[in-house]
Amino acid sequence: MNILILTYGTRGDVQPYIALGQGLKRGGHCVTVSTSSRFSGAIEAAGLHYAYMNDGMLTLLDTPEDQGVLEDTNNIFQVVKRTLGLLKKVGPIQRALADESWEAAQQSQPDMIVFHPKAFTAPDIAEKLGIPVAMALVVPGLVPTAEYPNMMLPRLKLGGWYNKLSYSFVNLLIGLSVAKHARTWRQENNLPKAKSFSLLQTHDGTAIPVIHGFSKLVVSRPDDWPRTASICGYWYTEDGEDYEPTPELSAFLAEGLPPVYVGFGSMTGRDPERLASMVIEALQGAGVRGVLATGWGGIKIKTLPQSIIAVDQVPHSWLFSRVRGVVHHGGAGTTAAALRAGKPSIVIPFFGDQPFWGDRVHTLNAGSAPIPLKRLTVDRLQAAIEEITTDQNMIDDAEALGMRLREEDGVENAIATIESLAGVPNQALQRTSR
């Protein structure tokens, strides 16, 4: 099959889909990944075809003021205010993404489309082409359940009615952001007018299958999910197999006890220099060595003590097996990498799904209680570092969970589901976790 993967967002919204694409390619399929142009090199290096999408949304969120806007999602009214405030900025970008998604489809001539929700016209494009479509998510963020609220909203203990309502609220916000662009695209391409906008069903009400790329060992499948929603396991790339560390990093890792990794991906907040200073002071106070990842987010570092080394970007699959613990922002990808490595985490959530993953890590006893960025202090971070490096029960539980996660093959399970939806026989389907 020709398979088009449409995704958009930060590295955590792209890397798992590259892993999925590589698995599909190994299975004999031709795969095109369409996403932000800043990831074109990574996609082509993975042996996949690339189709263009603009970089506008990510460029917008690179600015400290717009990152800061998203740092607190505990207040529903603030969520609404901030979402509406961003619409004027992102509207033209979203319209362009709709057109670029269609251009990617025309270029790749797919037999099936697999899409991230930010590629919101994917169901319409699939309808236009007369091909199957499936949503692929690395978070349990859109399929309603009474068991827990949507991860974008506060975890208020109001019962199942609130939990289910929270998904309707988030879907309403998504609709406010993108529905008009989807309607316009449908009209321009002579498709029937949809009764309402939904990423979970086609214009005639048919349910869109949703494939989740995380483990049921971390988030169990809710009993009230529809049969069209499946959990397959994590999608990860083996990018660490051929990695060659710098001589400086090799020497640092060899000269003492394993360090603690600290990195926040593309997240740094409004004051990255202050964040770096707090991290350095906390590591020194806890008496542990550290690897501080500057990464895409651009953590600001002036000077470092000998007990801490700075790195740019090192594959998590290589580095996390060589550290004692992981301090991170709670992005889905970094959380998955830390859990699979069997290392205890400290999650410092900024916004979005990150508080959800921080709570899951703590509930599984695979890490300390999360520390929201706005509550982060040197003392709190130091205490948490001491906890994850000395609490033997936590260390053992994290390692035991990691061993079980490493036995799963989420990519193979997802491929079996995709091939089944496309009508391709595949005996591996029986191993798909549902």
UniProtKB/TrEMBL annotation:
InterPro entries: EryCIII-like_C (IPR010610), Glycosyltransferase_28 (IPR050426), GlycoTrans_28_N (IPR004276), UDP_glucos_trans (IPR002213). Residues 3-140 form the Glycosyltransferase family 28 N-terminal domain. Residues 301-399 form the Erythromycin biosynthesis protein CIII-like C-terminal domain. Pfam families: EryCIII-like_C (PF06722), Glyco_transf_28 (PF03033). One of its GO terms (molecular function) is hexosyltransferase activity. One of its GO terms (biological process) is carbohydrate metabolic process. Keywords: Transferase. PANTHER family: STEROL 3-BETA-GLUCOSYLTRANSFERASE, STEROL 3-BETA-GLUCOSYLTRANSFERASE UGT80A2. This is Glycosyltransferase.
